[in-house]
Specification:
InterPro entries: BacA/B. Pfam families: Bactofilin. It is a single chain. It contains 3 helices and 14 strands. The protein is an alpha/beta fold. The relative contact order is 0.08.
């Protein structure tokens, strides 16, 4: 697309040699660009945002930050979780930092839990530190633990009891 002027080139060259010069220059640049990202420190990624028109049925797990504005029916595990004013979460929340501006129906586990004045929480809160602003609605119990996240991972959810084989022979007698 662009061509060099013959004035800046040392010595006479044929027309066929001009396209080879940019290719030769471009080839060494690729290994240096492959090396550069490894040398620079990575910046913290931006939080993931789930918009208000999004409904998720299922669990969410991330090591990063997440901001929820929509509806989630499932458990959430994150580093920093922000529940937006228009958000509704039905499930257990486990995060290092939890900021609730919207509605949560379920258990909240976090090192730092903050309920803002627009928060609506129906469930237990297990925390290391907690802040509840004036105007927040909260129904449940509050329990302080030194490591609330560890207990959430170590406590297995029990399966429902299995039915005994006794009713099967009773059906045969009918």
């Amino acid at each position: 697309m662009f061509s060099k002027s013959k004035i800046h080139e040392p010595g006479p060259k044929a027309e066929g040699d001009k396209p080879k010069t940019p290719e030769t220059t471009a080839a060494p640049a690729r290994p240096t660009t492959d090396y550069t990202p490894g040398a620079t420190p990575r910046a913290k990624p931006a939080p993931s945002v789930l918009s208000s028109d999004l409904t998720i049925t299922g669990n969410i797990k991330t090591t990063g930050d997440i901001q929820i504005e929509g509806v989630v029916e499932g458990d959430i595990r994150a580093h920093l979780l922000t529940v937006g004013e228009s958000a509704t979460i039905k499930g257990e929340i486990t995060a290092d930092d939890v900021v609730v501006n919207g509605r949560v129906v379920g258990r909240v586990r976090g090192l730092k839990v903050r309920l803002t004045s627009t928060a609506r929480v129906e469930g237990d809160i297990i925390h290391k530190t907690i802040a509840i602003e004036s105007g927040a609605h909260f129904e449940g119990s509050v329990q302080r633990q030194d490591d609330p996240l560890q207990n959430g991972q170590g406590t297995p959810k029990l399966a429902p009891p299995m039915a005994e084989p006794a009713p099967a022979p009773a059906q045969e007698k009918k």
